[in-house]
């Protein structure tokens, strides 16, 4: 049985025929839509490498059944930069050396964007560390990652203050 | 993952009908169900996707001060709901101490309450497990069982229930509202988690086809708001299941405890309500000594199910501490590390 | 701030590129999701392979339900020992120092849990995964041997990668006889798994007898040869691409059986095959850090000088191959003692063969040694730092040779100062924070060898004055793309923007192994030498061109800088590379270089990086929950190519040390031998909330002997010292000395 779902991925509405209801959102992105920026580190919700935003919220795409997300808006790492302008969180990851191997990075960045939207941490590093704890990094780039999130969060807050 | 039939019913009645077939399972966010299906520990032949069911996503304040929470409300949304968090701060704290931000954004209230044990042998289809496959035995009993139950276990099963959320809920006498093939009913949340008997370890108190439609907190549950805490010991500072946890809620007037509520997490197959300890605290002054006595009473029947005797002493200490924290008062703001022993700003005295 | 997709322009540079904190050249690819890791390749016609693994640890597979698997829609092929096509080399044959025996369905034997027992190929990942499960294997199981007491204990012929098993220097008995104080202590370390964030992955495609492989690999050219060997084709027929590794830590330097199976499947089916190991399958066929039991006996005179140092270790290895975690060797080179003895034994258990994992031997050995040193200091009534200073080794204790450079004293003093070590109470349980948590301070010394391997590189000057530099190096997060390019730019006298750096593919000059903290030094030397070789040739052209301002200068008479050659004696005489090439009518000019150690220096001196790590922990006095709140490390590791990258490497190592001390442990069922926490929820590595305030001080060290560039490695040293520092801090907070890792809550609440 083929199920047809419609997703808006990085702003583009896509109708996807799903011939197998077992396909997770992560495998749909990676293996069928060939959006491979989103990574699979554990496939079990334990590492955060697969983090994407669904309807504006960060979730683990490896534990989301694609068919169950009919109609959803999905934002992945590929959809962040506009033209050749990096998203401020992406830029902050480069400036603050927020990665080594880069494998956890798409998930860390998507998670950071979700975190900033949730607006619960303020600029308290302890709260940011807690709120980023669903994203593991085996290389040990934690210091740069948290500095990047803090930096980006402050920059965005500053922008908002200025435009308000 | 095995092949399955995917259904997306339009109403609770349809969902219940669809789930009444043997081998059917409800799919909420799937953060527990899909995980166990990937492991082959659960192999449902039909998934009944309840995520689109109408009216199960509301948080409703009831007349008299109680709350009804739809089964599909997301864990993070509930914790962020200001009126709810103000009325039941220990529930919000427990929610925020569970899993990760991503998982809490997805996970539903019903799925959290109905999540399965984290016993490694349950998750491993090659191991014997009475809870997963009745009658096969329990490999945990003589295996690696450092984190298993110290209360309410039997030789049939020594697993613990992993939910943080449910621990303060059981302390606060929460009720689940259920829809099933025979209509609606409700039960105390505590009864959703049957203890194992000598031979069997049923997974839940629901009958086939029944689903949790909502969770209800009675009005008096909010009367503890000034003195309600959750404390969770774990082996990472965050993103780890509890080794032992406890929820305490006190009503204190004129320096005396008028009412105490206490439940332990990760020590039994259900959130463990410590009624004897609650009774001891009635009318007592909030003091380390009285809390120590309450802790002893709470653990009076505890015994190791394996290599886990240390959990009994640990549970005693967690109770004593969580009572002290509760007596100290609910912090004004959610601590930076919810339910952690490592919060500096909340006025807690670490040494008791 | 860098906010465009053109390379970030924050590169500040004065003079040479080396020493500059450039941002990563691969940063843009990594933050936009466009860095292609192996599993991101999706060639036309791709099929998915999934390995079925064993649920027993010892015995044989009695049956596999191939029919059921094949009946699943989408399943194309099932490979079992019954139909597995032959390989040109038997997987049970040793192929050299890095060659481990592995399982590629050569028979039905099972030697550890999670061993491959079949391969299922299907049109989709979902079908292949379920197909593998449907094989429902049955077994003839034998009792698994999992513990130190279950297996046969023996004296291995060698430990680590070919290191001698035992070592004695001086008279141990005399050392003990002369002692006023002594301690004897034991430590246990568990099996640990590399758990690189990127799972092992391969995409393999055949074209006739030519094979293209996308797979993360720490030793690209060496592996190319191995892959070719198993399939009986010439090495040139294999093209291995590994532009990025999502972490390796040693596990991606060895050949895993599943890769061979995926390549076999691709040949059988004539279609490209993708295989990505699920996380749980990384707890078996891809190596791990073997568990150890260690005993140390230290003897001291009245002044706290060591008179004897004994370190004995037993390490677990598999039933069928050997990698013995060389833990005891950690005691060879750090503390001065007139008598040192190390011994290693091994125990065979039913587990996958261990392998090198970030700081193999040094990590587990240093953990035990640094704790023992603290116990010894306590026995002498001395402060931990003072004791270490009294036993400072001015020459290498093991060989008696001078050190090529050793700035450990400065590491101690700068680290201690930054940390605020002075005034630390000697006795435990003396400090509390305002919330009442016990506070403890501990320290450890860090040491890591500064090896060099062999590498080759090519530098090509192009007509426009820019250059292409090439070596098959591996960037697994250490920043090779950036650091190696910086070195190459210096060799060529070019700005880094003028240098195109190609790496990570097997058709490039052999970049050697990314391991042992020797990659930057080795591949870097090769690149530098290739650059200077090209420049020498360029100088030759200019010098012999009568119309050049550099005519007659000879190649020793010029200096290369900013894309121009300058006359050494007369700066006004100069010419750009482009001009020289164009006048000579040369389109490109190629230089080659090798990296390797000067054998004479290697013979004459002991070469190590050093460091000192200071840790602060907080422990809940009642609940035993622990948290590291501060880590300060000071490291002397020769010349630092890029302080930004080096700091990140050091932090990473220190975080691994934290993880070793408090988190990591693989738990196996003693009866079945199955790992029970083969995931990232049960096998803990630290999360962000566990990472404390960190500080890594780069202590200047000029090492003229280690290599021409003065470069040592920084990738692994951070682990050493840190484990002990944290354990010692826990003791200092609580008064409890845990004798196993990771330290657990129950160790502290008894
Ligand atoms: C890595 C990881 C870490 C975690 N850490 C924690 C932790 O620290 N603390 C904690 O408490 N939890 C933790 N969790 C568990 C998490 O809270 C649960 O997975 C989640 O709450 C389940 O919600 P869901 O909506 O995804 O449920 P699903 O996965 O969809 O369902 C779970 C189960 O409940 C059943 N079900 C769902 N909805 C209903 C309903 N309305 N009526 C009847 N049955 C229903 C399903 O059939 C299934 O059996 C963790 C999970 C992961 C993956
Ligand atoms: S403890 Fe319970 S869940 Fe675990 S193996 Fe035994 S029966 Fe199964
Ligand atoms: S891949 Fe989804 S959390 Fe790890
Ligand atoms: S940068 Fe490698 S895992 Fe985070």
Automatic annotation (TrEMBL), chain A:
Keyword terms: 2Fe-2S, Iron, Iron-sulfur, Metal-binding, Oxidoreductase
PANTHER family per UniProt: OXIDOREDUCTASE WITH IRON-SULFUR SUBUNIT (PTHR45331:SF2), OXIDOREDUCTASE, IRON-SULPHUR BINDING SUBUNIT-RELATED-RELATED (PTHR45331)
Keyword Oxidoreductase in record: yes
2Fe-2S ferredoxin-type domain segment(s): 3-80
Pfam families found in the cross-reference section: Fer2, Fer2_2
Name recorded for this polypeptide: Xanthine dehydrogenase YagT iron-sulfur-binding subunit
Single GO MF annotation: metal ion binding
The keyword Iron-sulfur is annotated on this UniProt entry: yes
Protein species of origin: Hoeflea marina
UniProtKB/TrEMBL annotation, chain B:
Pfam families: CO_deh_flav_C, FAD_binding_5
Alphabetical UniProt keywords: FAD, Flavoprotein
GO MF entry, a single one: oxidoreductase activity
The species this protein was found in: Hoeflea marina
Chain ranges of the FAD-binding PCMH-type domain: 1-222
SUPFAM superfamilies: CO dehydrogenase flavoprotein C-terminal domain-like, FAD-binding/transporter-associated domain-like
Top-level taxonomic group: Bacteria
PROSITE patterns reported for this sequence: FAD_PCMH (PS51387)
UniProt protein name: Xanthine dehydrogenase YagS FAD-binding subunit
Flavoprotein in keyword set: yes
UniProtKB/TrEMBL annotation, chain C:
Molecular function per GO: iron ion binding; oxidoreductase activity
Pfam families: Ald_Xan_dh_C, MoCoBD_1, MoCoBD_2
Domain Aldehyde oxidase/xanthine dehydrogenase a/b hammerhead, chain residue ranges per copy: 32-143
Protein name from the UniProt record: Xanthine dehydrogenase YagR molybdenum-binding subunit
Gene3D superfamilies noted in UniProt: Aldehyde oxidase/xanthine dehydrogenase, a/b hammerhead, Aldehyde oxidase/xanthine dehydrogenase, molybdopterin binding domain
SMART domains found in the cross-reference section: Ald_Xan_dh_C
InterPro entries given in the database record: Ald_Oxase/Xan_DH_a/b (IPR000674), Ald_Oxase/Xan_DH_a/b_sf (IPR036856), Ald_Oxase/xanthine_DH-like (IPR016208), AldOxase/xan_DH_MoCoBD1 (IPR008274), AldOxase/xan_DH_MoCoBD2 (IPR046867), AldOxase/xan_DH_Mopterin-bd_sf (IPR037165)
Region (Disordered) residue spans: 1-24
């Amino acid at each position: 049985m083929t199920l047809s779902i419609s997703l808006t991925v990085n702003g583009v509405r896509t109708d996807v025929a799903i011939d197998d209801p077992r396909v997770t959102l992560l495998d749909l992105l990676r293996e069928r839509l060939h959006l491979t920026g989103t990574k699979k580190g554990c496939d079990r919700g334990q590492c955060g490498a697969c983090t994407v935003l669904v309807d504006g919220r960060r979730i683990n795409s490896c534990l989301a059944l694609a068919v169950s997300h009919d109609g959803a808006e999905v934002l992945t790492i590929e959809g962040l930069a506009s033209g050749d302008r990096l998203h401020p969180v992406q830029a902050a990851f480069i400036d603050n050396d927020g990665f080594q191997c880069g494998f956890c990075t798409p998930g860390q960045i998507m998670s950071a964007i979700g975190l900033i939207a949730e607006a619960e941490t303020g600029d308290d590093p302890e709260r940011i560390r807690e709120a980023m704890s669903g994203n593991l990094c085996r290389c040990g780039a934690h210091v740069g990652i948290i500095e990047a999130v803090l930096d980006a969060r402050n920059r965005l807050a500053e922008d908002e203050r200025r435009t308000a | 993952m095995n092949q399955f039939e995917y259904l997306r019913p339009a109403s609770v009645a349809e969902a219940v009908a669809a789930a009444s077939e043997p081998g059917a399972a409800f799919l909420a966010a799937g953060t527990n169900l899909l995980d166990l299906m990937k492991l082959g520990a659960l192999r449902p032949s039909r998934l009944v996707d309840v995520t689109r069911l109408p009216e199960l996503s509301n948080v409703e304040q009831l007349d008299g001060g109680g709350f009804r929470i739809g089964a599909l409300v997301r864990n993070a949304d509930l914790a962020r709901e200001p009126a709810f968090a103000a009325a039941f701060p220990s529930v919000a704290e427990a929610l925020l101490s569970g899993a990760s931000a991503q998982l809490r954004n997805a996970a539903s209230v019903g799925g959290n309450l109905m999540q399965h044990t984290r016993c490694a042998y349950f998750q491993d289809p090659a191991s014997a497990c009475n809870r997963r496959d009745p009658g096969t035995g329990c490999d945990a009993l003589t295996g690696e069982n450092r984190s298993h139950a110290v209360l309410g276990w039997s030789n049939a099963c020594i697993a613990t229930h992993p939910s943080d959320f449910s621990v303060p809920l059981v302390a606060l006498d929460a009720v689940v509202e259920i829809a099933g093939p025979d209509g609606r009913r409700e039960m105390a949340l505590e009864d959703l988690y049957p203890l194992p008997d000598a031979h069997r370890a049923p997974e839940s108190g629901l009958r086939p086809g029944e689903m949790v439609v909502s969770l209800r907190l009675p009005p008096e549950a909010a009367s503890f708001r000034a003195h309600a805490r959750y404390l969770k010991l774990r082996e990472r500072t965050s993103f780890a299941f509890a080794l032992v946890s406890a929820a305490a809620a006190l009503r204190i007037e004129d320096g005396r405890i008028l009412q105490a509520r206490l439940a332990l997490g990760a020590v039994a197959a259900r959130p463990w309500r410590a009624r004897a300890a609650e009774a001891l605290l009635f009318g007592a002054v909030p003091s380390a000594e009285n809390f120590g006595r309450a802790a002893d009473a709470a653990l009076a029947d505890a015994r190791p199910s394996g290599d886990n005797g240390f959990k009994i002493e640990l549970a005693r200490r967690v109770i004593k501490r969580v009572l002290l924290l509760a007596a100290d008062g609910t912090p004004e703001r959610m601590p930076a590390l919810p339910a952690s022993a490592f919060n500096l700003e909340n006025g807690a005295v670490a040494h008791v | 701030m860098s906010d465009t997709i053109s390379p970030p322009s924050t590169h500040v540079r004065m003079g040479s590129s080396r020493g500059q904190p450039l941002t990563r050249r691969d940063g843009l690819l990594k933050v936009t999701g466009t860095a292609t890791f192996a599993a991101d390749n999706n060639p036309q016609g791709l099929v998915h392979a999934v390995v079925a693994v064993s649920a027993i640890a010892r015995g044989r597979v009695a049956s596999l339900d191939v029919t059921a698997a094949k009946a699943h829609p989408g399943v194309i092929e099932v490979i079992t020992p019954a139909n597995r096509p032959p390989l040109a080399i038997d997987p049970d044959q040793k192929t050299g120092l890095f060659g481990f025996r592995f399982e590629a369905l050569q028979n039905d034997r099972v030697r550890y849990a999670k061993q491959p027992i079949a391969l299922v190929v299907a049109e989709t990942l979902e079908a292949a995964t379920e197909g593998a499960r449907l094989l429902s294997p049955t077994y003839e199981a034998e009792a698994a041997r999992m513990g130190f007491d279950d297996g046969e204990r023996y004296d291995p012929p060698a430990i680590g990668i070919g290191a001698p098993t035992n070592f004695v220097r001086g008279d141990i008995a005399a050392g003990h006889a002369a002692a006023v104080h002594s301690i004897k202590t034991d430590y246990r370390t568990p099996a640990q798994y590399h758990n690189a964030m990127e799972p092992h992955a391969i995409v393999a495609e055949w074209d006739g007898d030519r094979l293209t492989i996308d797979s993360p690999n720490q030793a690209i050219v060496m592996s190319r040869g191995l892959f070719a060997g198993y399939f009986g084709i010439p090495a040139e027929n294999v093209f291995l691409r590994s532009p990025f590794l999502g972490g390796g830590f040693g596990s991606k330097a060895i050949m895993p059986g599943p890769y061979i199976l995926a390549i076999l499947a691709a040949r059988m089916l004539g279609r490209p095959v993708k295989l990505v190991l699920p996380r749980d399958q990384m707890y078996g066929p891809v190596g791990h850090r073997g568990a150890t039991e260690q005993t140390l006996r230290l003897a001291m005179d009245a002044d706290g000088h060591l008179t004897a140092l004994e370190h004995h270790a037993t390490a677990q290895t598999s039933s069928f191959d050997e990698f013995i975690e060389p833990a005891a060797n950690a005691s060879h080179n750090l503390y001065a003692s007139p008598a040192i003895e190390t011994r290693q034994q091994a125990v065979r258990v039913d587990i996958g063969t261990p392998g090198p994992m970030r700081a193999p031997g040094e990590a587990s050995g240093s953990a035990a040694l640094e704790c023992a040193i603290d116990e010894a200091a306590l026995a002498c009534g001395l402060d931990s730092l003072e004791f270490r200073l009294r036993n400072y080794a001015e020459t290498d204790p093991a060989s008696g040779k001078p050190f090529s450079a050793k700035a450990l004293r400065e590491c101690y003093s700068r680290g201690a100062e930054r940390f605020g070590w002075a005034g630390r109470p000697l006795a435990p349980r003396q400090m509390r924070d305002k919330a009442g948590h016990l506070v403890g301070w501990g320290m450890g010394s860090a040491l890591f060898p500064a090896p060099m391997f062999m590498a080759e590189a090519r530098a090509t000057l192009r007509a426009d004055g820019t250059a292409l530099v090439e070596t098959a190096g591996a960037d697994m997060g250490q920043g090779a793309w950036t650091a190696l390019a910086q070195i190459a730019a210096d060799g060529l006298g070019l700005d880094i923007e003028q240098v195109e750096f190609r790496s990570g593919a097997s058709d490039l000059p052999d970049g050697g192994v990314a391991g042992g903290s020797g990659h930057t030094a080795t591949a870097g030397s090769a690149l530098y030498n290739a650059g200077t070789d090209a420049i020498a040739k360029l100088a030759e052209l200019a010098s012999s061109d009568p119309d050049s301002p550099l005519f007659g200068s000879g190649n020793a008479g010029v200096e290369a800088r900013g894309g121009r050659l300058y006359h050494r004696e007369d700066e006004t005489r100069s010419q750009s590379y482009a001009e020289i090439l164009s006048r000579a009518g040369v389109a490109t000019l190629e230089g080659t270089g090798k990296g390797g150690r000067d054998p004479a220096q290697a013979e004459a001196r002991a070469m190590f990086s050093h460091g000192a790590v200071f840790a602060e922990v907080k422990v809940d006095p009642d609940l035993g929950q622990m948290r590291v709140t501060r880590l300060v490390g000071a490291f002397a590791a020769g010349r630092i190519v890029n302080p930004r990258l080096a700091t990140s490497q050091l932090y990473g190592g220190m975080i691994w040390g934290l993880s070793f001390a408090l988190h990591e442990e693989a738990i196996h069922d003693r009866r079945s031998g199955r790992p029970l926490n083969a995931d990232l929820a049960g096998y803990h590595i630290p999360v962000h909330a566990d990472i404390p305030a960190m500080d890594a001080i780069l202590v200047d060290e000029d090492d003229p002997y280690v290599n021409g560039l003065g470069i040592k490695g920084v990738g692994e040293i951070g682990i050493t010292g840190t484990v002990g520092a944290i354990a010692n801090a826990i003791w200092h907070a609580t008064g409890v000395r845990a004798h196993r890792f990771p330290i657990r809550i129950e160790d502290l609440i008894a």
